[in-house]
Amino acid sequence: MTARASRVRRTTAAAGVVVLLALTSTACSPLTVGVLGVGADGDGSPVAYLQVCDQHLDSVLLYSPDVDGERGGEWTATTPVSDSAVLDLQDPGDGWTVRTALPDLLPGTSYSLHAWSSSRFSNVGAESVQFTADDLAALRPGDVRRREGDVVVVESEADFAKHACDYVDGLYS
Description:
alpha+beta, five-stranded antiparallel β-sheet, single chain, globular, about 25% helix, about 170 residues
């Protein structure tokens, strides 16, 4: 084998390893197929707004990175959500199973709300949203707080339903 052919083989092998590493590292990150928002009802109770733009999601989790070992609340939809859903986090009602009840939201504590598909063949999720109890208290009923990357957006429930998928579509265009 010539020196040139040997270099070509090493270069091709190295390129293959780089492509494989890139594919395996991105395979761990869920594909964003929806957006989560949070708001408060007329009594100040937290409400999750889920807008699914593609595929379906069926699990919602609230946790606090500020509280060690605190999982927060966890809910599972009895039928996967493929369009939109509003989930009262204190009293989810029909269509949702409470796996872990919503804890009391502590002042000055950050919370993070996530959604994903529990299907073992799926690796999809929603854009999460972070908030504090003070953030919720500042919202009017019908306001939705959501995230677009590092930007926090507060909008009406109607605007959330209308524009949330625009953000998701922009991630992949």
